[in-house]
Amino acid sequence: MNSELRCLVLCTTVLSGCATNEAPSDGGFISGVKGVASGSYQDRVDERQENVDSLGTQESALREEEAIKSQEIARNAQEISRLEGELEQVKFEIEISLARIRQLDRALTAQERQTVARARERQTLAAPGASVDAERLEALKNTITQANLLAEQLSKIGA
Q1: Cα(136)–Cα(121) distance, rounded to whole angstroms?
Q2: pTM, whole model, 2 decimals?
Q3: Which residues contact 19 (CB under 8 A, 6 or more apart)?
Q4: Contact 157, 103 (CB under 8 A)
Q5: Judging by beta carbons within 10 Å of its beta carbon (0-12, 13-18, 19+), is residue 132 exposed, middle or buried?
Q6: In contact, 135 and 126? CB cutoff 8 Å
Q7: Dihedral Cα 92, 98, 103, 106, nearest 10 deg
Q8: For residue 17, what are the contacts with CB-CB under 8 A and spacing of at least 6?
Q9: Using an 8 Å Cβ cutoff, are 17 and 9 in contact?
Q10: What is the pLDDT of residues 83-105, one digit of tens each?
Q11: Alpha carbon distance 32, 146 (integer Å)
Q12: Where does residue 129 fall: left (phi above 0), alpha (psi -120 to 50 degrees), or beta otherwise?
């Protein structure tokens, strides 16, 4: 009987170590045989393979998106560089225009002084009477003509 009891305890111990479980790492021999026979192990392998395949597809999509974004960044950097060059050119042209305007402003002032001096000279040289009025009128016409020419020149510069 002693031997039968030992055999019974031994079988119980062995069988308790083979409790069934779906996870292969947690189950024993009997769970392993049951999992292989029922296909549950293969189902778990297939499920995990689907996850791996899905992650691979996601990785490929992300790599493609990264490549597209990198190209977009490179194009934007080139565009920024081009626009910065244009900006420098426009700044240079503005400086040239401002210098020209300052030069014309100084020239305009000198021309105005000359026109005033000529008008005064004509007034002092003219004899009193009607001829003074005619000369003054002529001087005013010349002054207006010169002012109109200067205004045209300035408008061309400003345009």
Answers
A1: 11
A2: 0.41
A3: 27, 28, 30, 31
A4: no
A5: middle
A6: yes
A7: -160
A8: 28
A9: no
A10: 998 889 988 988 888 888 778 77
A11: 110
A12: left
Question: At which residue do the structure tokens 């996870």 appear?
Answer: 23
Residue 2 amino acid letter? N
Contacts of residue 21, defined as CB under 8 A and 6 or more positions apart, other chains included, come to 27, 28, 31
Q: Please write the tens of the pLDDT for every residue from 34-73.
A: 766 777 778 888 899 999 999 999 999 999 999 999 999 9
Q: Which of 83, 104, 89 is nearest to 156 (CA)?
A: 104
Distance CA 24, CA 27 (A): 5
Cβ count within 10 A of residue 143: 15
Distance CA 12, CA 62 (A): 54
Tokens, residue 32: 């392993």
